[in-house]
Amino acid sequence: MPATSTLLARLVSDGMLSATPLTAFAVTPGLREWYVDDDIEELEYAASAEAARASLRLISTDPAAARRRVVIAADVPDASVTVRDDLDRGVVRVDATIELSACASVHADDAEAEQAVAAASQVIDVADLGDEAAEDIVGDAEGFELSWYATEEIDDLLGQLAG
Fold it and tell me: What's the structural domain count of the chain?
């Protein structure tokens, strides 16, 4: 699920994200068709990359958020997930509260990505509309790998994001 430092802090303070439906990304038929790979780990990585791109959109509307992409990996019941490949590849709507206990991990940019992410968040909408120069700027941010954090490390991560 794409997020920001603000949303991650809310998840920790409230123990859940309850504003439903939530937009998230998963291995969907549209993602499988686009990625053309049967390796589930590669497909999950592709879904995570789509969520990281969506995180740029969230950052662009949240002036208080750290300029680092955040992706939350969570396990949710299949019955609460609706595939929405019509919106974009890999998009799903989640009609359930995401409990902190259902989160498997968090992925976030390191500090060295901040400048690229800040620039990309300013042009993501233009890039989505096909502007090549904007897409290059977004590509610079997407060149940074997200670091993996266990749920027990979220408080430390939030401290880094605030600093």
Answer: 1
- Residue 18 pLDDT: 85
Give the CA diameter of the chain: 41
pLDDT-based confidence at residue 137 (cuts at 50, 70, 90): very high
Q: Give the pLDDT score at 30.
A: 92
| Residue 73 resides in a domain | yes
Here the tokens at position 139 are: 């590509």
Give the integer Cα–Cα distance in Å for 4 and 58. 7
Q: Is residue 75 part of a domain?
A: yes
Residue 162 lies in a domain: no
Contact call for residues 7 and 70 (beta carbons, < 8 A): yes
Q: What pLDDT does 11 receive?
A: 96
Task: Note whether 9 and 68 are within 8 A (CB).
Answer: no
Find the Cα–Cα–Cα–Cα dihedral 79, 88, 109, 125, rounded to 10°.
-140
Cα of 10 vs its chain's centroid, Å: 15
Question: What tens digit of pLDDT does each residue of 95-109 get?
Answer: 999 999 999 999 999
Structure tokens, 2: 């794409």
Comparing C-alpha atoms, which of 38, 126, 29 is closest to residue 81?
29
Range of the domain at 141: 2-151
